[in-house]
UniProtKB/TrEMBL annotation:
<protein>
    <recommendedName>
        <fullName>Tyr recombinase domain-containing protein</fullName>
    </recommendedName>
</protein>
<dbReference type="InterPro" id="IPR013762">
    <property type="entry name" value="Integrase-like_cat_sf"/>
</dbReference>
<dbReference type="InterPro" id="IPR011010">
    <property type="entry name" value="DNA_brk_join_enz"/>
</dbReference>
<keyword id="KW-0233">DNA recombination</keyword>
Length: 297
């Protein structure tokens, strides 16, 4: 354990190393797992808690059953159910040693985890009015950013909080967003329907300040929910806005591998669940699409 170093997210490791090592050294003697294996699994989990969710390094918070359940069901969707069960089992054994009083809550069945439903065109039109109808300039700006970045580029809260004006490229081929926050740096093209709003937001932005505004690290993964609870009117939810982007791409026939790339996923095991929201083609279009006429493929 003293020589362990993670291969990914090496910048976060110095901040969490003592916490992870203390937890695993206490738990390992009381489990069937080696300290090395527990350290590897716990490092990825604690990194996610701190970077993606903004949680404090407190055993009762990090190793809560709610955090472990969310990590197993949401963060590791690209892995098999067996792998996710193994990860969760190891993290739960650590939790049972560190915070035994939290061992009575029921966990989410991994095999039945659903996905967020996308919004309809009518709902999205309503949310545009919702954004523009907020009572302060700051709230209007943030509401617009929430729609643009989640529904227009499928960004997560942790990827929004540090987004600088300079990370948004405006060119003849459209607007591109450089994602630096979170664990999946990438370049995402913004849906064309949001170009006008993004252009207006950039026009009023200060170069040295994130688009969302001065950072508040206490928000973390709760950035959007912390904001919308103080807005007026029926507000959108971030994961449903991202689902709307996914379904829009699938409906348009975007290459699946490139959808993975834009989302920052290596695998996409929830794809069949999103396909349930895609409208099937009529018979003529279905036959023509699969013939690949004129495509040269």
């Amino acid at each position: 354990m003293s020589t362990y170093r993670p291969r990914r997210d090496t910048e976060t490791w110095p901040l969490i190393a003592d916490f992870v090592k203390d937890a695993c050294s206490l738990a390992a003697p009381q489990t069937k797992y080696t300290a090395k294996l527990l350290t590897t699994i716990a490092t990825a989990f604690v990194t996610w808690c701190v970077v993606e969710r903004g949680l404090p390094l407190e055993a009762g918070v990090i190793f809560s059953r709610q955090a472990i359940d969310m990590y197993a069901t949401e963060e590791n969707r690209g892995r098999s159910e067996g792998t996710r069960r193994n990860y969760r089992a190891m993290l739960l054994r650590i939790a049972e040693v560190l915070v035994p009083e939290q061992h009575n809550e029921r966990l989410t069945p991994l095999s039945r985890k659903g996905v967020a439903a996308p919004y309809s065109a009518e709902q999205m039109a309503h949310f545009r009015f919702w954004a523009l109808g907020q009572h302060t300039e700051v709230k209007r700006r943030r509401a617009m950013l929430m729609l643009v970045l989640c529904a227009g580029a499928a960004l997560k809260p942790v990827e929004i909080v540090d987004l600088m004006p300079g990370h948004v490229r405006v060119g003849g081929g459209g607007i591109l967003i450089e994602v630096h926050g979170g664990t999946s740096p990438r370049l995402v093209p913004l849906l064309a329907e949001w170009d006008e709003w993004m252009t207006a937001l950039l026009a009023d932005a200060e170069p040295e300040i994130p688009l969302w505004g001065p950072p508040n690290r206490s928000d973390g993964g709760n950035l959007l929910s912390s904001f919308t609870q103080y807005t007026i009117g029926e507000h959108p939810v971030g994961n449903r806005l991202r689902a709307t982007w996914i379904v829009k791409q699938l409906q348009a026939g975007a290459p699946i591998k490139e959808v993975h790339r834009a989302l920052g996923f290596e695998k996409f095991e929830n794809l069949p669940r999103y396909l349930a929201y895609v409208t099937p083609l009529d018979d003529e279009s279905y036959l023509s699409a699969l013939r690949l006429e004129g495509s040269g493929k």
